[in-house]
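G., the chain you wanted modeled:
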Amino acid sequence: MTLFTFFGCALTAYGPCLAIFFGSIAPNAQLVILMVSSRAEQGLNMVAKHPKSKFNRSGYAFSAGLGFGLMFGVISYITLLVQSLGPGVLMCNSCPNMSLYFVSVTHYGASYLTLLNSSTINLGCAYAVLGNVVLLLASAIIVFADLRNLHQKSS
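Predicted structure as tokens:
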């Protein structure tokens, strides 16, 4: 029954967007590209058959608006769709042993390491990438150990 709920909610939320997409945007490849990345308008005007047509502007605005609306709908509604699949879905409570302090320190560490990209330090980019890889590996080790412990407790 949860699968029916999932598809019912998904089609209720995204059905109108899919109908608009397949009805008016999908036949024109330029509008599909613009829907995915709305910053491509200048490049699309260079390759368009009629770049100065007043109809291009409204079509581009329509497709970019649909792209933004679809992304907003995905971001705001996806958690409800995942929860409708039932209790077998691991949400944020899957790592109760992960300390909030570690999560915040790794997020701040990764953010501050990216500041090395624009610094005057010699090989700052390499240090930033290396530091982020180290943070990623440390996080992966902790998460896999936590999941292994969770699996051993459930068996």
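The mean pLDDT is 78.

Shout if anything looks off.
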